[in-house]
Amino acid sequence: MNRKTKPLAKTLQIIVAILATIFAIYPIWFIILASGRSGDRLLTLNLAGMFLPTEWTWENYQYMIFTDPLLTWMKNSLMVAGLTTIACLFIATSAAFAFSRMRFYGREWGLVLFLAIQSFPGVLSLIPIAQLLTAVGGYAKHWGLILAYTTGTLIFTTMNLKGYFDTIPIDLEEAAMIDGCGPVQSFLLIALPLARPAIAVTALFAFMGGWGEYVLASVIIPAPELKKTVVVALYRLANEISVPWGHFAAGGVMVIVPVLIVFLFLQRYLEGGLTLGGVKG
Question: Which of the four CATH numbers 3.40.190.100, 1.10.3720.10, 3.40.50.720, 3.90.1170.30 does domain 69-236 have?
Fold first, then answer.
């Protein structure tokens, strides 16, 4: 009975995996196909053209690069996302290590407060954030948006890194301290290298949060056009009369490229078991 059902179950698993893969990949493939159609057409009457590049033109990409200031928008987003990632990692690594290793007054309540703030809907904080940035002179400026992104992402990055620091054996740091390392040296030379997988994942999420966010960026930087981030600027391409689907799709494909580059760069650090066998008996 089991021998007969195993091939059937394996076949069903393969079919489900194939369907799930198609369901996940086809929207991206559809955008790529739409970016290569002329005349701002989102759809085509050719059934094969919905799955294969039966027609292709680069005019949408040429328009976005040489006519619309897409590269300027991408530069703004790259600066905002990059500095947000650096600021989050700089603060979150030390904060997470302190919460993981040190015992101080208010530590437990601090962790509970982090969870409570994380569960608070971010949309409800738009007006307070805008008012605070206006008071400090950061409204309609990139550094104000970076500050807002950093504060919004910091709790997640701290909690994520804190959970990984908890898995690193403290015996390694104590052994380093016996050999003469101080607390800061043990943090920099022992804990951080071992936490590379968590740091890579945290950096990826922080970058994606600053790169693809729309609501906060549209509120903090309403004008001028050249200061907008790429996601906000692409959405503003549409008007009440028509939507330039070809330009929109080409811009969407180009927006994906930096995220893929960051992922490929960090992929080699997404390793597991760095501490396996680091402490014996």
Answer: 1.10.3720.10
Give the closest residue to 246 by CA, choosing from 76, 87, 3, 39: 39
pTM of the predicted structure, to 2 decimals: 0.82
Q: What was the pLDDT predicted at 224?
A: 82
Does 33 score more than 60 pLDDT?
A: yes
One-character DSSP codes across 218-281: HHH----GGGS-HHHHHHTT--SS---HHHHHHHHHHHHHHHHHHHHHHHTT----TTTTSS--
Residue ranges of domains in the chain: 2-63, 69-236
The predicted-structure confidence for 83-105, as pLDDT tens digits, reads as follows: 999 999 999 998 888 888 887 78
